[in-house]
Q: What sequence folds into this?
């Protein structure tokens, strides 16, 4: 594939309307809410190992697909991936912990501890992941003037400068990519 063709394919992952990076058409791509969230590198590695198929959160968006720009926390400290998420499963903490346990034996207990004090929690299905060379924390701060990694999630449409940096990071071809199955 030529560099020009790859650019068109890569742009689709982020809403260009061209053929998908993953070899299929992605009609949801243009409607995904872009967010920035931090992720511990340990959990990121579990996604690539096929052991993590949901992201578990105490608060999240309801009823919509999301394009998650991933800031990997220390020791990596880098904006470096995009994960497409399906609409969240919103349920009582016990049910969310059951989803975690079904996905990876032993994980239900830690998810239960994380969400047990809530009326509802979120299990968000991971659909696709693409990793890029990325941008380290120091460069993010230089480009933006200031940058603090999010504790929860940041809606990027409300932060156009940050969204522009995310688009810049993902403009090149990914280092690796995969579709996640088995929800």
A:
């Amino acid at each position: 594939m030529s560099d020009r063709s790859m650019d068109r394919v890569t742009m689709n992952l982020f809403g260009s309307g061209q053929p998908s990076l993953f070899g299929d058409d992605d009609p949801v791509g243009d409607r995904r809410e872009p967010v920035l969230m931090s992720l511990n590198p340990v959990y990121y590695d579990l996604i690539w190992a096929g052991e993590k198929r949901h992201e578990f959160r105490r608060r999240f968006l309801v009823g919509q697909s999301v394009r998650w720009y991933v800031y990997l926390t220390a020791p990596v400290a880098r904006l470096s991936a995009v994960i497409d998420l399906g609409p969240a499963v919103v349920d009582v903490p016990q049910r969310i912990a059951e989803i975690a346990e079904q996905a990876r034996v032993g994980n239900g207990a830690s998810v239960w501890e994380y969400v047990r004090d809530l009326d509802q929690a979120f299990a968000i299905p991971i659909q696709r992941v693409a990793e890029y060379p990325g941008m380290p924390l120091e460069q993010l701060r230089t480009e933006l003037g200031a940058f603090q990694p999010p504790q929860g999630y940041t809606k990027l449409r409300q932060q156009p400068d940050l969204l522009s940096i995310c688009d810049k990071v993902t403009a090149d071809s990914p280092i690796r990519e995969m579709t996640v199955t088995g929800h």
